[in-house]
Design brief:
Layout lengths: L12 H20 L10 E6 L5 H12 L3 E6 L11 H11 L2 E5 L3 H10 L4 E3 L7 H15 L6 E5 L4 H13 L2 E5 L8 H9 L3 E4 L3 H5 L4 E4 L11 H7 L7 H4 L7 E4 L11 H4 L6 H20 L2
Parallel strand pairs: 1-2, 1-3, 3-4, 5-6, 5-8, 6-7, 8-9
Helix pairs in contact: 1-12, 2-12, 3-4, 5-6, 5-12, 6-7
The chain binds phosphoric acid mono(formamide)ester (CP) and norvaline.
The site of phosphoric acid mono(formamide)ester has 9 residues, from helix 2.
């Protein structure tokens, strides 16, 4: 049976541990110049409906380093851009490639693709989740703190796709997540209940300051995700007071670290001082997309 990775909950605790350990090993091997062509001869189709820097580069380089090949496919240039059904693309692409990674506006598009593909499908970001980002974030947190269990994490900002994956991941990692979002932009209550029902520790705070109190990690993301551009002005107003700045970080644990999946908007959700400052782990976080996704690809594809 093929395995997909559409949600962070598509892996269990053991599988997540194995992916993170695998990523650490692949990172060491790359640094030491040890070849690790575990996917020689395999191909990954990468379908993008939206822009990408990190996801595109890290998957393409990752497949190359694993001895395989990646194809960048802009959805507009495929026949799906002219109305071909996603299920037909899924069936046909499955005859050519070993796996498909897709970044789509609607999560339902990814589910549709996965339902009809006979090869593994990876969610490279949808409106609902960004599970690959969470693999990199968990790897980054583990590298820095040694363990994820019991760590206090604050999410400050939009209850968006990355927030959803973070909240769900508490069921696997033992991290305790507190979310502060402005009214109208909160994480969906069903999602919080889902995480809690699986043993995840999630709470909601009324203000960013309440969320970051004693937090060991502060996470934020853009206030205007891809697809939300029409609401730009409304969102800039609604998120006033939610900037992760030096003043807010002072209320966290003195050794707290800051994560942001990038791209960042200095002066909006985060200040340049914090993003580029000593408590920021964002560049390691971005690098770790590569190592974490290589481990994911090996897990999904190696016989
Ligand atoms: N964090 C992330 O997914 O970045 P890109 O949009 O550049 O891929
Ligand atoms: N929440 C952002 C993440 C970008 C990587 C978006 O969906 O645009």
């Amino acid at each position: 049976m093929k395995k997909d990775f559409l949600s962070i909950l598509d892996v269990n605790k053991t599988e997540l541990d194995e992916i993170i350990t695998g990523a650490e090993r692949l990172k060491r091997q790359k640094r030491a110049g040890v070849p690790h062509e575990l996917l020689r001869g395999m191909s990954l189709a990468m379908i993008f409906e939206k822009s990408s820097t990190r996801t595109h580069i890290s998957f393409e380089v990752g497949m190359h380093e694993l001895g395989g090949h990646a194809l960048f496919l802009n959805a507009k240039d495929l026949q799906i851009g002219r109305g071909e059904e996603i299920r037909d693309t899924a069936r046909v692409a499955s005859r050519y490639v070993s796996a498909i990674m897709i970044r789509a506006y609607h999560h339902s598009t990814i589910v549709d693709l996965a339902t009809h593909a006979t090869v593994p499908v990876i969610n490279g970001l949808s409106d609902h989740e960004h599970p690959c980002q969470l693999l990199a974030d968990i790897l980054t947190i583990k590298e820095h703190f040694g363990d994820t269990r019991g760590l206090r994490i604050a999410w400050v900002g939009d209850g968006n796709n990355v927030c959803n994956s973070l909240v769900l991941s508490t069921a696997l990692t033992g991290m305790e997540v507190t979310v502060a979002s402005p009214k109208g932009y909160e994480v969906a209550p069903e999602l919080v209940s889902q995480a809690q029902g699986l043993g995840g520790k999630v709470s909601l705070a009324k203000t960013p300051r309440e969320a970051v109190k004693d937090a060991q990690v502060i996470v934020t993301d853009t206030w205007i995700s891809m697809g939300d551009e029409a609401e730009k002005e409304k969102r800039l107003c609604a998120f006033h007071g939610y900037t992760v700045n030096d003043e807010l970080v002072k209320h966290a644990d003195p050794d707290a670290r800051v994560l942001h999946c990038l791209p960042a908007h200095r002066g909006e959700e985060i200040t340049g001082e914090v993003l580029d400052g000593p408590q920021s782990l964002v560049w390691d976080e971005a690098e770790n997309r590569l190592h974490a996704q290589k481990a994911l690809l090996v897990r999904l594809l190696k016989k």
